[in-house]
Amino acid sequence: MTKIELDALLNIDALNEAAEMLKAMAHPVRIAILKLLSNGKPLTVSEIHEILNIEQSTTSHHLSIMKTRNIVCAKRKGKNIYYTISHQRISNILNCIQQCNNKN
């Protein structure tokens, strides 16, 4: 391995950013929200809380944490704010979690 490859592999800032993103995702409610959003359809807080049967304030709290870590994006349309997953890599992480959870 060359020094350039090693430096890229050990980029502390990138590793810290990845760790913070994973910590922000590491909650059952957040994983459920992300799975719901992984179909690509933008959803409002109200839609998410109704589908998952959790309090709207709880839903907003978890979305806020994930928005801060750039895991989800929020776009306002009229009175509503619609949430989507911000990067394909988030969907890839969800797929990995699901595969690890499957019993073979």
3D structure, described in words:
The structure is a single chain. The protein is 63% helix and 12% strand. It has a two-stranded antiparallel sheet with strand order 1-2. The relative contact order is 0.14. It has 104 residues and is mainly alpha-helical. It has a single domain, classed as Winged helix-like DNA-binding domain superfamily/Winged helix DNA-binding domain (Arc Repressor Mutant, subunit A), CATH 1.10.10. It is built from six helices and two strands, in the order H-H-H-H-H-E-E-H.
Key terms:
104 residues, mainly alpha, Arc Repressor Mutant, subunit A, 12% strand
Mean pLDDT: 88
Give the C-alpha Rg: 16 Å
CATH architecture: Orthogonal Bundle
Count of helix runs: 6
Helix amount, in percent? 55-70%
Question: Count the strands?
Answer: 2
How many domains is the backbone divided into?
1
Portion of residues in beta strands equals 5-15%
Q: Report the principal-axis shape.
A: elongated
Quaternary assembly: single chain
Question: Can you tell me the CATH class?
Answer: Mainly Alpha
Please name the CATH topology.
Arc Repressor Mutant, subunit A
CATH level-4 homologous superfamily: Winged helix-like DNA-binding domain superfamily/Winged helix DNA-binding domain
> SS-based structural class?
mainly alpha
Q: What about the largest sheet?
A: 2 strands, antiparallel
N to C succession of SSEs: HHHHHEEH
Low-pLDDT parts are none
